Amino acid sequence: VLHTTRPLHTTQQSLAPVPPLPEKGGEVRHGVIPEEFFQFLYPKTGVTGPYMLGTGLLLYLLSKEIYVVNHETAAAACILSVIVYAIKKFGPNVAAFADKLNEEKMASALAMKNEAIETLQKAIDEEKKEQWRVEGRTYLFDAKRNNIAMLLETNYRERLLMVYNEVKKRLDYQVAMQTLKRQKEQEHMIQWVEKNVVQSITPQQQKESIAKCILDLKALSKSAHAAV
Amino acid sequence: GPLWERPLLEVRLGELHTWISTCSFSAQGLLGAVQRAWSSFCAKYIHVKQGGPAGLSMLLAGYCLLSYGWNYQHFSKNSLGSLV
Known about the structure:
The structure holds two protein chains of two kinds. By secondary structure, chain A is mostly helical. Chain A contains four helices and two strands; from the N terminus they run E-E-H-H-H-H. Chain A has helices at residues 35-45, 49-63, 71-200, 203-227, and strands spanning 28-29, 33-34. Chain A has a two-stranded antiparallel ribbon with strand order 1-2. In chain A, a hairpin with a 3-residue loop joins strand 1 and strand 2 (33-34). Chain A starts with 27 loop residues before the first strand and ends with a helix. By secondary structure, chain B is an all-alpha fold. Chain B contains four helices and no strands. Chain B has helices at 16-22, 27-46, 54-70, 72-77. Chain A binds chain B through residues 20-26, 28, 31-32, 34, 36, 65, 67-68, 70, 87, 91, 95, 99, 102, and chain B through 9, 44-55, 57-58, 61, 68, 75-76, 78-81. Chain B: Keywords: ATP synthesis, CF(0), Hydrogen ion transport, Ion transport, Membrane, Mitochondrion, Transport. Chain B: It is found in: Mitochondrion membrane. Chain B: It comes from Sterrhoptilus dennistouni. Chain B: GO terms for molecular function: proton-transporting ATP synthase activity, rotational mechanism. Chain B: It holds the Pfam family WRW.
């Protein structure tokens, strides 16, 4: 049941980023006893209080045989001394090694983060460049429009030329027909006129014309004889 | 804050019995208490950037004491006080 009247996300708390780990753990004295114990006893008993308490407790346990001393005590003492020696000797090395591992992890994570930031930045720049390119698109479309207009124009003019040629051919044909017709009519008329004229020359006229020609020829020959 | 919400370390000695009376001893309550104790121990001594031997050594010491307490019968059989 979700109380719709309850406001969600009222605090600033969120799961990420995770708060960083504390630098150092709680203080512990001699490896087993936390510092709070010593602070707890300090107001009443001062600095040596907890140590007195510890010594007294130890003697009480030993004397009342609440802590039994047997072979395991010797084993525990040896083991404890070895452990303490090992920690004192190799502690800093192990700590440095662990720190180095941590550093490597952090460095790789940081590198990934930086790489991601760089790639995103590059993507942003590319995007901006694409947006700038879009502005030039109007010029591209203008050029294309010009091309198409030119194509249309040439096509139109070609067709116009074709139409003109066809019409001219037809008109030339008509003109040629007319001239031919007139020529034929002329020839026919000349032939008819010649024929009629020849027919109209009667034989008598022919005799007369021949006699006249002979007289003319005689006259000419006389003049020619005279010239010579 | 109120008494029953304070962790054990902040309760005064005089109010201890009232505090005990307010905490729940059901299975869920005990489990919750154990979980809280463990998580606070981890947060203080283990989940730090520069831990030392303290966290692990305290756990081992506590384990040693617990196992000594569980096997006390067996130890006391071999003690000087049981010689007949």
